[in-house]
Amino acid sequence: MSALPTGTEKQVKVKAMFDAIAPRYDLVNRLMTFGLDTSWRSRCITLLGLRPGAVVLDVACGTGDLTRELRERSFKGFGVDFSLGMLRHAPAGTGPLVRADAARLPLRDGAADGAVSGFALRNFADLPAVARELGRVLGPGGRLSILEVAEPDQPLLKAGHALWFRHVVPVLGGLLSDASAYRYLPESVAYLPSHEELRGLLESAGFREVRRHRLSGGIVQIVTATRAPSPTKGSGP
Predict the structure, then answer these.
(1) pLDDT tens across 92-119, in order?
(2) Going by C-beta distance under 8 Å and a sequence separation of 6 or more, which residues neighbour residue 1?
(3) Burial of residue 172, with CB atoms counted within 10 A of its CB: 0-12 exposed, 13-18 middle, 19 or more buried
(4) DSSP state letters, 29-47
(5) Is the pTM of this model over 0.90?
(6) If residue 187 lies in a helix (H) or strand (E), which one and from where to where?
(7) 87: left (phi over 0), alpha (psi -120 to 50) or beta
(8) CATH number of the domain encompassing residue 55
(9) What is the per-residue pLDDT across 24-75, written as a single tens digit (0 to 9) for each?
(10) What is the domain extent for residue 84?
(11) Total domain count for the chain?
């Protein structure tokens, strides 16, 4: 495995990569997940536990899959992404989409009731800063639901998943899109924090009730959390 970039280098390379794969991003996603990604995204939204009409931010929205479903389910969904290529390939009618860095969201404090994100944790150059921003823009009681890849525990499923993810997906991506981008995809799993590390980051950013939900035999995970109320000034023992 080649050395993975970090910091500013990572941000520049990841942006260029998503700009390049944007035209066929949705097609390759459907093929490499056998269409399961649509049900995973639906579950991600359901696990927010919010009522229709809630304001929900889709962080690193890409072409807007989650944003569209949010709006189809009567949420006030809107998305942000730093790849202009991805935003330009969002289907018409997706909803409000803004080019922005997830570590510096152009939103006031407490602007949203909830936030979702699909397969983006590995791509943030400064994950602690993103967690802090999510804690800032969600009001007390606000809900967070993050969809990400995972590795199954069952040995046979684990072996099959590794074969598909590390060997077949790069070939498929190379045939239909950009070969280097889909070689990066399985390598980028190395960026993922453990659940304990992620829970610590979210709790430090003001979240509580951090829980992990495994889907499809453990090949993906959804991490949910609730924004804790801000401490009352002058409170104490």
Answers:
(1) 999 999 999 999 999 999 999 999 999 9
(2) 187, 190
(3) middle
(4) HHHHTTTHHHHHHHHHHHT
(5) yes
(6) helix 179-187
(7) alpha
(8) 3.40.50.150
(9) 999 999 999 999 999 999 999 999 999 999 999 999 999 999 999 999 999 9
(10) 7-227
(11) 1
